[in-house]
Design goal:
Blueprint (H helix, E strand, L loop, with lengths): L2 H21 L5 H4 L5 H21 L2 H16 L9 H22 L3 H26 L28
Length: 164
């Protein structure tokens, strides 16, 4: 089996696990507009971008479009606190533009264009987090990232996750 097929399969499984977990219990947060911790929105953005990667490696444009639409809804969420810093506002609007462009490229089934916009999106995310951490000093200590299981015995839910 080719490495990109394995990576795509793992990405799809992680995306499905996230969707199942999000759909259990209460309706999605962005639909019922209750207060959401900032870290939850950041994790939702991360999950959306991971779904874009899964769609890219499997050439599943409908998955990319859904993930881009989810990312756009997160960008539009009133719970996403803004900061008065102009650079932060620029990064926030840049993410929204990238989400729209991802959806557009997926609609056109343009794999190269979608890949390019995805790379620009990741670059903007890294730049924004660097700015928040190093300049504004508002970014929290990064949460522990759960690694992708490499065997069937490993599961991301079997390892403890520490939250602040």
């Amino acid at each position: 089996m080719k490495w990109y097929a394995v990576l795509g399969g793992l990405g799809v499984l992680m995306g499905l696990a996230f969707c199942v977990r999000m759909n259990a219990g209460d309706p999605p947060v962005l639909q019922n507009r209750r207060e959401v911790p900032q870290s939850s929105l950041m994790l939702a953005k991360l999950a959306s971008t991971q779904q874009v990667v899964s769609g890219l490696v499997s050439k599943d444009f409908s998955m990319i479009k859904r993930a881009a639409d989810d990312l756009q809804r997160i960008c539009d969420a009133s719970q996403w606190e803004s900061h008065p810093d102009p650079a932060y506002a620029s990064y926030k609007s840049q993410l929204s533009r990238h989400a729209n462009k991802l959806a557009e490229m997926a609609q056109q089934q343009n794999l190269e264009g979608t890949t390019l916009v995805y790379m620009q999106t990741v670059s903007a995310c890294v730049d924004c987090h660097s700015h928040c951490r190093d300049v504004l000093r508002i970014a929290a200590v990064p949460q522990r990232v759960i690694s992708i299981p490499v065997t069937e015995e490993q599961s991301p839910y079997s390892m403890p996750v520490y939250r602040r």
